[in-house]
Amino acid sequence: MSGMPRTTTDGRMMTTYTKAPGAPLTERQEARRRRILRATTRLAAQGGYDSVQMREVAELSEVALGTLYRYFPSKVHLLVATMYDQLEQLGGQLRRKPNKGLPPRDRVVDTLLRAFRGMQREPHLTEAMMRALQFADRSVSAEVDGVSRITTQMIFEAIHEDDTVEPSTEELAVIRVITHTWHSSLISWLNGRASISQVRLDIETVARLIPEDAPGGTAGEGSAAPHAR
Amino acid sequence: MSGMPRTTTDGRMMTTYTKAPGAPLTERQEARRRRILRATTRLAAQGGYDSVQMREVAELSEVALGTLYRYFPSKVHLLVATMYDQLEQLGGQLRRKPNKGLPPRDRVVDTLLRAFRGMQREPHLTEAMMRALQFADRSVSAEVDGVSRITTQMIFEAIHEDDTVEPSTEELAVIRVITHTWHSSLISWLNGRASISQVRLDIETVARLIPEDAPGGTAGEGSAAPHAR
DNA sequence: GCGTAATCTAGAACGAGTTTCAGTATTGAG
DNA sequence: CTCAATACTGAAACTCGTTCTAGATTACGC
Q1: Beta-carbon pairs below 8 A across chains A and B
Q2: Looking at the predicted structure, is the pLDDT value of residue A169 above 80?
Q3: pTM for the complete prediction?
Q4: Which of these, A47, A56, B28, B183, is most buried using a 10 Å CB contact count?
């Protein structure tokens, strides 16, 4: 029916590839990739999703349009990759000043709120990346999974100060729910449908799913529910 | 720099309106509106977001393109309105066969899973509506709020069999978190990044935020956690 | 170095969302 | 019933994401 070239049943993008898909990029290529991501960040920070126009990104990063598409097969890919990039930096920052002493639940809340404050500083950039992330379809699965992985890791580290533990299924579910809440409420805030205090409240609410007990000090309220499944 | 006509600072769409924005629509207008929504549903059910093309919607509903845009100022508006429409029907269905007897937490899980099964029946339609909902920006706030309201209402009714109670702030936060989780995990499922059982697990997990004891007419607070901070 | 495959560039071209416009039809007030 | 305001139609135009083409350039095995 619809003669769409893209995403027929699979999702692979395959832009006339001839070489190995995971080729290790030469130095100049790495530089191009960086320029592109930098240009994207700049445009996004300036005016959000709509301001990230592929032609402009190409021009700003001094790369031909076709090349831009060779590196990032769509605008959404580009912005999700940018998000990954930003998250890596954020992760580094967060790790640098850990919030010891608090019970795990509070550490998670603290981490997410700190991240939130970071995003408040660049609302347009945040909007661009989040819109792309939420809009992404199957063809961006791999990239979205990357973002998901790094986010999960961040929350997991907030729960366990020592990162030697393996997460349980139950714990992963909790982390997924936290992530969902984090993304959605961020979007609501960006769209002016939720206030900052509402975002905070939502985070505190969902954090109640994290069991109280943990290494480090705990305190005494009644836990939400240890029961799973 | 970017000579964008749209969304300069506000977000109002204002398509050369001259009359009152909330004019009560004549009969023929109501019919047109219905035809448009029906056409949208059909196209969406057939091939998802990408298959809902404004020209096709216009043609199928026997309306000029300009008219379509007068009724729904963008594709996203159109799809969010469609979602509202579908939710209303779903709400009716759910109300018709209530799940008495269960504790509130289970009733919520049951309701959401039932809704989920409904969406599984029309995955393309679901995908189209959800993508639009998540992609919506400020200019669609009003419509998104409508969807949000109806969803909240649905979950609220699942918690309280009697609908006479007023929700507390705490309870609203829980409902918001549930909604966030519901939307996000639905999207993950649609994108093939989460399995059905994962969706179920996420819903069950987030439902733990609902206090065990059935308030059954309760005066509300003090249930689970007395609201942080 | 040479030659060839892979990559990059500039630019045109295509597709779908959105806007615009001139003309026609409908509506509603008086 | 008449007239002016409003809404609708059909079609073209505009924007921006995406694809395609032809010709440079670059990378690299020999």
Answers
A1: 128
A2: yes
A3: 0.85
A4: B183
